[in-house]
Design a protein that fits this description.
The structure is a homodimer of 254-residue chains. By secondary structure, chain A is of the alpha/beta class. Chain A has 2 domains: 2-151, 3-Layer(aba) Sandwich (Rossmann fold); 156-249, N-(1-d-carboxylethyl)-l-norvaline Dehydrogenase, domain 2, CATH 1.10.1040. In chain A, 45% of the residues lie in helices and 15% in strands. In chain A, helix 2 (36-43) links the parallel strand 2 and strand 3.
Chain lengths: 254, 254
């Protein structure tokens, strides 16, 4: 049995809490949060605390809070014997107190409230200061995911940056498509099968080979017509920059 | 039984050919293409021709060729009694010969060679010059898809433009994520579950609500670190422009 304390009440904390609670081999003994209101989500099931000087003893402390609070909050754990890990993609392991046993437990996924995810398929990138702690973290991660990988701080930073393109910017492309549809009274839902296929096909094909469209074909006529159609300067700038970037990728110029 | 001639040998032509051939109520009586090599794909199954003056009589002619060739090629069909339709998102219906019965048959999907798609789920946007031709086109489209919608030329142009963001630019985001991973020796495959979830969650959630990440959170620390990490000026420009656009969407400034 691995005992854990979760520090944080956001989406990552909630999803980890649910995943751990569904496993017999993992015990969540406490959840810490600043806000009593946010803690109410956990209250009925588990001990909660809003006092950092009142954290219980556990095998692993998961600091699942915003990046800029990780260093400060983890300082309150310096007297703990357990392994302290954060869940951030962009923060180095050594942001945690260097007198403690430290590690990182980074689930590479986007979490929204009220949306269930299948943890078995989520890569969990782990890092630890020594082999023994790595094995402990590996046991925790493997209990909820089939894709546990050892990733050091530099590699994790790369993944986090790449994820901004693959997830955040991709979603923003969906948003602009949505805006264009709404502004012109066309149902956005018609694009959903296309969006689905775009994501699905790169599970087999490299994105380089999967690229289609006017910029890839160097279709100047469509490029000009699309720019004329775009009423927003913001959309216009994005269309131009990304089209040129695609052209450059395939060795052509618009 | 609806008889059809397909003009074109590219991905759209091939996928339509396969979809039509699998239906009892549709007959493909000929495929036209300029290149004998490209026609060899169809040769064994069907009559083919590389001569535009030798096109057979049919109920519907599907002009599935590159946008800039549609007007020219369709001129060779002026003496035909059948309905002439093109399959392009960005070309108006009246680019077809105005003495003929004309329409548009636009499948809103991305087609790659060697990749099967499920036509039942692909929206087919149709337009015709009169009710009778619309019904004929509707019968053809409904035979292969469960999502047939009436979309006029202006609406179709909007969809085509929105599709460039939702598909072409999205795939380019995947490509940049892929480049960043390769350049730094990190396996891109780790991002596939994230990419999948990003596309899947907007089937229920609006992209506006689904947005996560540093730009949405106005996380200046991560913004600065990511810019420092990006070695390519092209990636840097794209990161900056899209982050600012996300910030603007949520009413914040970086």
């Amino acid at each position: 049995m691995i005992s854990t304390v979760i520090l944080g009440t956001g989406n990552v904390a909630k999803h980890l809490f649910e995943a751990f609670m569904s496993q017999n081999g993992i015990e969540v003994i406490q959840v810490y949060g600043r806000s009593l209101k946010a803690l109410s989500y956990f209250n009925n099931q588990i001990n909660t605390s809003s006092d950092l000087s009142n954290i219980k003893e556990a095998d692993i402390y998961l600091v699942a809070i915003s990046d800029d609070a990780i260093s400060e909050v983890s300082k309150f754990l310096v007297d703990k014997r357990g392994l302290i890990v954060h869940t951030s993609g962009s923060i180095p392991m050594n942001a945690l107190p260097n007198k403690n046993r430290c590690g990182v437990f980074y689930p590479l996924q986007t979490f929204n409230a009220h949306r269930k995810v299948n943890f078995k398929e989520i890569p969990i990138c782990i890092e630890a200061g020594n082999d023994q702690d790595y094995e402990l973290l590996n046991a925790l991660a493997s209990a909820i995911s089939d894709k546990v990988v050892q990733i050091d701080t530099d590699q994790r930073k790369v993944l986090h940056l790449a994820a901004v393109f693959a997830n955040n910017f991709t979603n923003h492309m969906y948003h602009i498509a949505h805006e264009i549809c709404i502004q012109n009274d066309v149902p956005f839902e018609l694009l959903l099968p296309l969006i689905n296929e775009t994501a699905t096909k790169i599970q087999d094909l490299s994105p380089l080979d999967a690229q289609t469209g006017p910029a890839r074909r160097n279709d100047k006529g469509t490029f000009g017509k699309h720019l004329a159609q775009l009423k927003s300067k913001k959309h216009n700038n994005i269309y131009t920059l990304l089209s040129k970037s695609i052209q450059k990728t395939y060795g052509k110029k618009l």
